[in-house]
Amino acid sequence: MKRFLGADAARRLAYGRYGKPYLRGGPYFNLSHSGHYAVLVVSTVPVGVDVEQRRDDDDCAALAAAAFHPSEREHYARHPSVRTFFDIWTLKESYLKLRGTGLSVEPSSFALTLERGGARLHGRPEIRFRLYDDLPGHSLAVCLMGGSAPDAVTMTHF
Questions:
Q1: Burial code of 133-156, b = ≥16 C-beta within 10 A, e = fewer?
Q2: Using alpha carbons only, what angle is made at residue 153 by residues 147 and 158, rounded to the nearest 5 degrees?
Q3: For the whole model, what pTM was predicted?
Q4: What does the DSSP 8-state code read for residue 82?
Q5: Cα 61 from chain centroid (whole Å)
Q6: Sign of the dihedral defined by the CA atoms of residues 53, 26, 17, 150, in that order
Q7: Beta strand pairing status for 47-53 and 138-145?
Q8: How far apart are CA 147 and CA 125, in angstroms?
Q9: What angle do CA 26, 29, 31 make, to 5 degrees?
Q10: CA atoms of 56 and 68, how far apart (whole Å)
Q11: What pLDDT shows up at residue 152?
Q12: Residue pLDDT, tens place only, 117-156
C-alpha cells in the first residue's frame, strides 16, 4: 500500500465507524483479496471493491436465497451459475464497502439491477458499478460515488 498510497500512509491511516480504513487528507482507497489476488483501488471519489474466487462447492442457490433481494434472486433463477452468483455478490459487497458499513447492513435490504459490465442502484444514479473479467476464476466489482471506473485492471506482481 505504501507504493500506491505514499510512504506516510501508515501515519495518516484512520478508521470509520464500522472499521473501514481511510487516509486523512485522501486519496480514497479500498482493498479486497481472495484466492491468489489482492485488489487495491485508489480513487479521487469514495470507492468500494470486492474480489471473490468463484467456488463450485458453495451452495449458491441457498446463499442467494439468504443474501439477495427478491429481484436479484429472480435474476439468479433465470441465469443460475456460479459466475452469476459471484458477480451479484461482489457488486453488492463493493457497495457495502463503499458505504463503509460492511455486512452490518443486510445485503438483501437493497436491490441492484444488473446490466452489461455492472449494475444500477435504484434511485442512486451517482453510484457507479463496474464488473471486471481480468482475473481468471474470480469475480471483481468496483463501486464508486460518482466518477468512472477504469476500463481495465492494472496488474502488478509482487
A1: eebeebbbbbbbbeeebeeebeee
A2: 130
A3: 0.93
A4: H
A5: 20
A6: negative
A7: antiparallel
A8: 11
A9: 155
A10: 18
A11: 79
A12: 999 998 899 999 999 988 999 999 999 999 888 887 887 7
